[in-house]
């Protein structure tokens, strides 16, 4: 039955946006499989990553058995592939959406370009398939399926690979974050100052890079991989370790799925290289590099978006903005993202403490409070970038809206600081009173940390 459903859905021809509803119906369960089960390790994949120190982690209740640990940390679906090789076909349950949920998901997709789009609600309405559903819709609405003559079944298979290679156990770096970044990227691609110059290739690159920019993220940062002598850190010589892995994993999935196999070889090679350039730009350690270049271009007024090189640079800036746009969302969503990323930081800190490793910056729950982390991040990372983005857009309505949310959210976190100091002060475990005003130190810690709060 599952094969028939996938084949039937693959016959949908998207001739107009009204047919997007069929795409949502198709994506009721991205876990549908044929008789061959889950494919084996993809080409170019890396060997099993053995974080044996995690076997006895305090989060064993969430990570579970040794097999689940292997699946979580394999970086290439090691466990599922090994089950297939042993002849065990995964028993994936069907998770089809009822009509009420489909109707609400369709309604949300009609407003996907709105900045107050609630990705958490959309993820629930699509039964945890927000990334696949969103990308299928955006590829259709931007005309990419028709322009690049993409096979719908192949596109779906590729997007399933991407979504499944995000680790749902990560509080922050998971498929919902990828969907949120993709929705933000869609909004930025519609900015009038940029939209009129973009080619279909630019749009496809921007959406693919946003969707896959953190794929297979292990939930720990680059310094952790370096100090545990991880083979990826050695492979990439401690430079943009995670970003390089996200890029190479994406290329592996593109090749395995054969999504672009019908395109000329030169074109696919160019797409792979440009995807790498976009994903590598999300390395927070390169923040000043890109910010300095953007300021110089805007000061000199020498951006020529008819030029492919300049368009690519602005796509890099747009992706960087999308990746760290959480503080620019409405407070209810921004707060939830802040709590999620800090929970991921704190988990790493507890792991480092348990195994007597130096606790990474921002990962010590006893010293680094959520408000202080967020205030420093907003002040020294987010605000400078989004001010320049607003300059580029000519202070568009979206830019003004984002800066307004950013100012409001920063004030909200500041209002929470005294309360937190008082509640922790009695136990003697609270941060110093001036922790929130740590200035450049906060910026340097965030950069060294290697991921964005």
TrEMBL record:
Active site: 173
Keyword entries, A-Z: cAMP, Hydrolase, Metal-binding
Needed co-factor(s): a divalent metal cation
Binding residues for Zn(2+) 2: 214
Alphabetized GO MF terms: 3',5'-cyclic-AMP phosphodiesterase activity; metal ion binding
Pathway: Purine metabolism; 3',5'-cyclic AMP degradation; AMP from 3',5'-cyclic AMP: step 1/1
Residues that hold Zn(2+) 1 according to the record: 177, 213-214, 323
Key word Ribonucleoprotein present: no
Top-level enzyme category: hydrolase
Annotated catalysed reactions: 3',5'-cyclic AMP + H2O = AMP + H(+)
Record-linked InterPro entries: HD/PDEase_dom, PDEase, PDEase_catalytic_dom, PDEase_catalytic_dom_sf, PDEase_CS
Start and end residues of each stretch annotated as Disordered: 417-453
Residue ranges of domain PDEase in the record: 97-420
UniProt entry tagged with the keyword Hydrolase: yes
EC number: 3.1.4.-
A single BP term in Gene Ontology: signal transduction
CDD domains associated with the record: HDc
Residue sites binding AMP per the record: 173-177, 214, 323, 374
Cofactor note: Binds 2 divalent metal cations per subunit. Site 1 may preferentially bind zinc ions, while site 2 has a preference for magnesium and/or manganese ions.
Family: Belongs to the cyclic nucleotide phosphodiesterase family. PDE7 subfamily.
Protein name (database record): Phosphodiesterase
Species this protein is from: Macaca mulatta (Rhesus macaque)
Lineage: Eukaryota, Metazoa, Chordata, Craniata, Vertebrata
């Amino acid at each position: 039955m599952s094969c028939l459903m996938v084949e039937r859905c693959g016959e949908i021809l998207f001739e107009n946006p009204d047919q997007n509803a069929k795409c949502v119906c198709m994506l009721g369960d991205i876990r549908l499989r044929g008789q061959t089960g889950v494919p084996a390790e993809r080409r170019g994949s890396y060997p099993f990553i053995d974080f044996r120190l995690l076997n006895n982690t305090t989060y064993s209740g969430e990570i579970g058995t040794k097999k689940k640990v292997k699946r979580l940390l394999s970086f290439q679906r090691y466990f599922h592939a090994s089950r297939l090789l042993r002849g065990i076909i995964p028993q994936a349950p069907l998770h089809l959406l009822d009509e009420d949920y489909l109707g609400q998901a369709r309604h949300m997709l009609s407003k996907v370009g709105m900045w107050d789009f609630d990705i958490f609600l959309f993820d629930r309405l699509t039964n945890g398939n927000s990334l696949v559903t969103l990308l299928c819709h955006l590829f259709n609405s931007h005309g990419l399926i028709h322009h690049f003559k993409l096979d719908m079944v192949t596109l779906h298979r590729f997007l399933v690979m991407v979504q499944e290679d995000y680790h749902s156990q990560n509080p922050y770096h998971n498929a919902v974050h990828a969907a949120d970044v993709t929705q933000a990227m869609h909004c930025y691609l519609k900015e009038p100052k940029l939209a009129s110059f973009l080619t279909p290739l630019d749009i496809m690159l921007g959406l693919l890079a946003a969707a896959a920019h953190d794929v297979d993220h292990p939930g720990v940062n680059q310094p952790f991989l370096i100090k545990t002598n991880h083979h990826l850190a050695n492979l990439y010589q401690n430079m943009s370790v995670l970003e390089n892995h996200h890029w190479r994993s994406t290329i592996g999935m593109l090749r395995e799925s054969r999504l672009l196999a019908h395109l000329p070889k030169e074109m696919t090679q160019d797409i792979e290289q440009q995807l790498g350039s976009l994903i590598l730009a999300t390395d927070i350690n390169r923040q000043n590099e890109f910010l300095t270049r953007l300021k110089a271009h805007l000061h000199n007024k020498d951006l020529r978006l008819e030029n492919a090189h300049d368009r690519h640079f602005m796509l890099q800036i747009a992706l960087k903005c999308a990746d760290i746009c959480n503080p620019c969302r409405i407070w209810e969503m921004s707060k939830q993202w802040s709590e999620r990323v800090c929970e991921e930081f704190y988990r790493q800190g507890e792991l480092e403490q348990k195994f007597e490793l130096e606790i990474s910056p921002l990962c010590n729950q006893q010293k680094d409070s959520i408000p202080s982390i967020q205030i420093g991040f907003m002040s020294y990372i987010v605000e400078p970038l989004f001010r320049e983005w607003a300059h580029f857009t000519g202070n568009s309505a979206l830019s003004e809206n984002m800066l307004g949310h950013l100012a409001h959210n920063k004030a909200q976190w500041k209002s929470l600081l005294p309360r937190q100091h008082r509640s922790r002060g009695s136990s003697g475990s609270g941060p110093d009173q001036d922790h929130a005003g740590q200035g450049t130190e906060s910026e340097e810690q965030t950069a060294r940390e290697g991921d964005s709060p």
